[in-house]
UniProtKB/TrEMBL annotation, chain A:
Signal peptide: none annotated. The chain crosses the membrane at residues 69-95, 107-130, 161-180, 200-222, 229-248, 260-278. It comes from the Bacteria. Residues 72-278 form the ABC transmembrane type-1 domain. Belongs to the binding-protein-dependent transport system permease family. CysTW subfamily. GO terms for biological process: transmembrane transport. The gene is potH. This is Putrescine transport system permease protein PotH. It holds the Pfam family BPD_transp_1. The keyword Transmembrane applies. It comes from Palleronia abyssalis. Keywords: Cell membrane, Membrane, Transmembrane, Transmembrane helix, Transport.
Automatic annotation (TrEMBL), chain B:
Belongs to the ABC transporter superfamily. Spermidine/putrescine importer (TC 3.A.1.11.1) family. It is an enzyme of class 7 (translocase). This is Spermidine/putrescine import ATP-binding protein PotA. The keyword Ribonucleoprotein does not apply.
UniProtKB/TrEMBL annotation, chain C:
Belongs to the binding-protein-dependent transport system permease family. CysTW subfamily. The chain crosses the membrane at residues 7-25, 54-80, 92-118, 130-153, 174-196, 202-220, 232-252. The gene is ydcV_1. PROSITE patterns: ABC_TM1 (PS50928). This is Inner membrane ABC transporter permease protein YdcV. Keywords: Cell membrane, Membrane, Transmembrane, Transmembrane helix, Transport.
Length: 287, 365, 257
């Protein structure tokens, strides 16, 4: 009984999360082929021996074509900029929520979480209507006289930043709120009592103590943003390079599964560092 | 200790966690109907011992025998013991009534009888009117009583209480101590109470055991433990004590002398002591056994002199910190029997302290 | 200043949602030009067999995968919180948190490759469709469900279970009498979260769905890639209304307590 409790989820996640990675790794070093599925068999029986051919060609291909390098770098840049914007917007919001009276605090928290429960896809889609040339944003700006010609916002990197910040803002606010609300109010009063001005108190007490929340929130935005596909697909333009889209196109359009697998493996390696960082913060928070 | 059939026999029980001896070779017999207190600081092993009695933990070595039955391998739900938890552990989704009925239903007692017995319990703890409430609608004192009633409802052979009054404030705690003792005497159920509060142990216990680092260092009645501690640890843990280091210089059948440089001379004891001449010992003297005065009194066979450093007025009594001429500071307490104004002894005054050699306890150093 | 940023932030979060709702009642197909109140897009939505079919598949997939995820997540949380140290603990701990941070494209691609390889090797799962989507969604749903149930389990007073056992309840009975009622709110949240995530996923489903089965998000995605569609606005409004009512009802209940 006791064993089954742990064994069941362990087996499920092992089979459907861990093993797929091994398959992914294996296919990333196999030869593409025009076949169904489009790669050469993973194993072969030859002379009564099970043999496996490893082919690093896919990785060499990735290294040689600058498109891939640019896509990785561009993904990192887009994710980093979006994370920074989300932090600058999310921190004051989390701070205001943490300082609000109890009743209102719960309401505000619910308002942060509520969009998360409504379809992500539809919320990103909503921005198309807002950002189009004859969309709401342009109409309002024209009406106000700020501009005299519609701005091109949709299908730019700016729209992608907007979409990422918009989608992942709750992920930034919640861990920030968690650390800020845990903070002992006496600490702030103690700092004030010892002669610190509010701004100094913020810089010397609040901010350092909320660093775990800042890091956790940032990683929770940054990591999925790097691999994002839907947002650049809907809001980005032809010039928007993101590795998630590259992988998608290799798989669905070029039907080059081995290269798609190699792209995925490299993405995992790129994300290993931020993921390790996030796990370390979370482990520290638990203890 | 020589009871042929104690209700509970703890026989050389040891519990280790890795290299740590949480409970270290404890042996203890507890008689039917006794209220026994296990007293110790945090980490002394008292709670681990309690968890082994209730079955939530098992000894690494040794045996626990309840009413003649070896408890090895018997899970908590098959033991004839019940526990009152420190946090009370009242089921938040059940009413007071259902909380108390829970154990009875599990024991296979029918609905009709359960109702009767729950009533009895509610009356016993005077909560008849709150039967339909949920735990979060009760005060701390009321929750404590529900927890007690729930644990008693099955009429266990042995009731284990883990810091039963720890969550109550001081005044309520004192009232409840007496109430708890009355209930125990009425029902005749054997209680084992774990506590870190020495006053609570002194008030409740028929007998108590003092635990230190996994061992029981002394067992006895509260009076025995207070008046005749067997070690410096016990003397210091129960109440406060002044300790003088010294050497035995004379040990005869009728009297003994211990020379203590800290006391500034010999301490005379009018009876024989265990020890040999030349052995280093510690003399323990409770603060209330010292009598403070302006000049030495003939009534005492031992005298010290010094200067008052400060006086702490506590209402019923005053505590004097007196620095002896040897440099050591002792505590002296005095009941404020008369309201003295003006003429009182003040800080800085020179005073004489007297005590009877009968009142000291000689401990191995 | 703090107030202004906070208000701006909430406006930023809610303006797009509001615009979806408003324009779902717009007469004109040109979503951005207001030409009068109308419910015609709702009527068209209810006659769109493609969307209705996909919605039905999505609800089936979400229900099944959320249920599986809640069961697996509860077991995982139970093992992680209550079993102390056991041999598979580090592995389980890592496996339940990894899907939380793994980009969807990678989860989708790797699972698809597994399904294809398994199909070739042992003939199961034969082809792709509802079954493979359910498996994929249950997998990442389990990770989220574990987190939710774990959080609740940690705050559950262990002494309650000890007390029940001390009062004579068999461990299995303790689980049903004490543990499960204590976990109930978390189980509901976990199920709803897994359900929502499944209903929301387009990337993973696109990889593992195969040609036969299209989920609602897949259909929506293919529609909106071509541009704005008032029918989708109507659908969004219905979904937002459902979620809002559920969330409001839930928070109203917790307020009354």
């Amino acid at each position: 009984m006791r064993r089954l409790v742990a064994a069941l989820p362990l087996m499920w996640l092992g089979l459907f999360f861990l093993v797929p990675f091994l398959v992914l790794l294996r296919i990333s070093v196999s030869e593409p082929a025009i076949a169904q599925p489009p790669y050469l068999p993973l194993f072969e029986w030859a002379d009564g021996l099970l043999t496996m051919t490893l082919n690093l060609g896919n990785y060499i291909f990735l290294a040689e074509d600058p498109l891939y390098l640019f896509s990785y770098l561009s993904s990192l840049k887009i994710a980093a900029v979006s994370t920074l914007i989300a932090l600058l917007l999310g921190y004051p919001m989390a701070y205001a929520i943490a300082r609000a009276p109890t009743g209102r605090r719960n309401l505000l928290l619910m308002l942060v979480i509520l969009p998360f429960w409504t379809s992500f896809l539809l919320r990103v889609y909503a921005w198309i209507g807002l950002l189009k040339a004859n969309g709401l944003v342009n109409n309002v700006l024209l009406w106000l006289g700020v501009i005299d010609q519609p701005l091109v916002i949709l299908q730019t990197d700016f729209a992608v930043y907007l979409g990422i910040v918009y989608t992942y803002l709750p992920f930034m606010i919640l861990p920030l709120y968690a650390t800020l609300s845990k903070m002992d109010g006496d600490l702030l009063e103690a700092a004030a009592d010892l002669g610190a001005r509010p701004a100094v108190t913020f810089l010397t007490v609040t901010l350092p103590l909320s660093m775990p929340g800042v890091l956790a929130g940032s990683m929770l935005v940054f990591i999925p943003a790097v691999g994002e596909y839907v947002i650049p697909a809907l809001l980005g333009g032809p010039g928007t390079l993101m590795i998630g889209s590259v992988l998608w196109n290799e798989f669905f359009l070029n039907r080059d599964w081995p290269v798609a697998a190699a792209v995925a493996i490299v993405m995992v390696l790129v994300l290993a560092l931020p993921i390790t960082l996030l796990r370390r913060i979370q482990a520290q928070e638990e203890s | 200790m020589t009871d042929p059939q104690p209700l509970l026999r703890i026989d050389s029980v040891t519990r280790t966690f890795g290299d740590v001896y949480a409970v270290d070779d404890v042996s203890l017999d507890i008689r039917q109907g006794e209220l026994f207190c296990l007293l110790g600081g945090s980490g002394s092993g008292k709670s681990t011992l309690l968890r082994m009695l209730s079955g939530f933990d098992a000894p690494s070595r040794g045996r626990i025998v309840i009413d003649g039955q070896d408890m090895a391998g018997v899970p908590p739900h098959r033991r004839d013991t019940n526990m009152m938890f420190q946090s009370y552990a009242l089921f938040p989704h059940m009413t007071v009534e259902r909380n108390i009925a829970y154990g009875l239903r599990r024991a296979g007692i029918g609905r009709a009888e359960t109702v009767v017995r729950v009533r009895e319990m509610l009356e016993l703890v005077q909560l008849d009117k709150l039967a339909g409430r949920k735990p979060d609608q009760l005060s701390g004192g009321q929750r404590q009583r529900v927890a007690l009633a729930r644990a008693l409802a099955r009429r266990p052979k042995l009731l284990l209480l883990d810091e039963p009054l720890g969550a109550l404030d001081k005044k309520l705690r004192e009232e409840t101590q007496l109430e708890l003792k009355k209930i125990q005497e009425t029902l005749g159920i054997t209680f084992i109470v774990v506590t870190h509060d020495q006053e609570e142990a002194m008030t409740l216990a028929d007998r108590m055991g003092v635990m230190q680092e996994g061992r029981i260092v002394q067992v006895g009645t509260p009076r025995e433990i207070y008046e005749f501690p067997r070690s410096r640890f016990v003397a210091g843990f129960i109440g406060t004590v002044n300790l003088f280091d010294g050497t035995i210089t004379q040990d005869r059948d009728t009297d003994a002398v211990i020379d203590s440089p800290q006391a500034g001379g010999p301490i005379r004891i009018p009876h024989a002591i265990t020890g040999t001449v030349g052995q280093s010992v510690t003399v323990a003297l409770r603060p209330e056994k010292l009598v403070i005065g302006r000049a030495p009194s003939e009534a005492h066979d031992n005298h010290l002199s010094g200067q008052i450093r400060d006086i702490v007025y506590q209402g019923g009594l005053s505590v004097f910190h007196v620095t002896l001429d040897t440099g050591m500071t002792v505590r002296v307490t005095r009941t404020n029997r008369v309201r003295d104004e003006g003429a009182a002894i003040a800080a800085g005054d020179r005073v004489a302290l007297g005590f009877s050699g009968q009142s000291v306890v000689v401990l191995p150093s | 200043m703090l107030r202004a940023i906070t208000l701006l932030g909430f406006a930023f979060l809610y303006a797009p949602i509001l615009s979806l709702v408003i324009y779902s009642f717009n007469e004109s197909r040109l979503v951005t030009v207001w030409s009068g109140f109308s419910t015609r897009w709702y009527a068209e939505l209810l006659q769109d067999d493609q969307i209705l079919g996909a919605a039905w598949i999505s609800i089936k997939v979400a229900t099944l995968s959320a249920t599986l995820a809640t069961v697996l997540g509860t077991l995982a949380a139970l093992a992680l919180i209550r079993h102390g140290r056991f041999r598979g603990r580090p592995a389980l701990g890592g496996l339940v948190t990894a899907p939380l941070v793994m980009p969807e494209v990678i989860i989708g691609l790797s699972l698809l490759l597994l399904f294809v390889a398994m199909d070739n090797l042992i003939g199961w799962p034969a082809g792709r469709g509802v079954l493979t989507i359910v498996i994929a969604h249950a997998t990442f749903g389990t990770a989220f469900a574990t987190v939710v149930v774990q959080a609740r389990m940690v705050s559950l007073d262990r002494a309650l279970e000890d007390a029940a056992q001390d009062l004579g309840a068999h461990p299995l009975r303790v689980f049903f009498d004490i543990t499960l009622p204590g976990l109930a709110p978390a189980l509901i949240s976990a199920w709803l979260l897994a359900f929502t995530l499944s209903l929301d996923d387009v990337v993973i489903a696109s990889f593992v769905a195969g040609p036969g089965a299209s989920t609602l998000p897949m259909v929506i995605f293919s529609k909106v890639r071509l541009g704005v569609s008032p029918e989708v606005n109507a659908l969004a409004t219905l979904m937002i209304a459902t979620v809002s009512i559920l969330v409001l009802a839930a928070s109203f209940r917790s307020w009354r307590r």
